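Q: Got a minute? One more chain.
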Amino acid sequence: MQSPLDHNRRRFLTRAAVAASVVPLSTLALQLPSRRATAADRPEAEDGHAHDYVRNAADSDHALFEAGSNCGNCAFWSGSVTDDHGGCFHPDFMTVLVAEEGWCSVYARGG
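A: Always. Here it is, folded:
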């Protein structure tokens, strides 16, 4: 037979474990909508931002450039945010929007 003390201790530990897991999850859930809302507020990348970036792939004279390659079909492309600009998963471009028709030297065929 269980003593009332054991029952209370188990109930306390169960509730404490649930409460401890809810705090980080609720913090994460509250941050996600704000990240989505600010995606369109990021500035557009300028020519030369990083990795020889150009807004129009046709303007590139880089040795690695191949016709038909652009941000819109790159593996780092995260999708359109505005009509002609979108996000890039590459660390050097995560704070800016890149032109879908743009290109940089870290282009990786994929998207």
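A: The chain has two domains: 1-37, 43-99.
Q: Perfect, thanks.
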